Amino acid sequence: MIDNLIMEDLEKIKSSVPRDFFCGKKVLVTGGAGFIGSWICDVLVDFGANVVALDDFSTGRRSNVDHLVLKNNFRLVDSDICNFDVEERFDVVFHLAAHASPDEYMANSIQTLLTSSVGTHRVAELARRNDAVLLFASTSEVYGDAEVVPTPESYWGKVNPIGPRSCYDEGKRFGEALLVAYSKQYGLSVRIPRIFNTYGPRLREDGLYGRALSRFVHQALTRQPITVFGDGSQTRSFCYVTDTVSALMLLAASEKAEGEVVNVGNIKEVTILELARKVLEFTASKSEVEFLPLPADDPRRRCPVTAKLERLINWSPNVEFDEGLKRTILWFSGKTH
Ligand SMILES: NC(=O)c1ccc[n+]([C@@H]2O[C@H](COP(=O)([O-])OP(=O)(O)OC[C@H]3O[C@@H](n4cnc5c(N)ncnc54)[C@H](O)[C@@H]3O)[C@@H](O)[C@H]2O)c1
Question: How many CB atoms lie within 10 A of CB 285?
Answer without folding.
Answer: 19
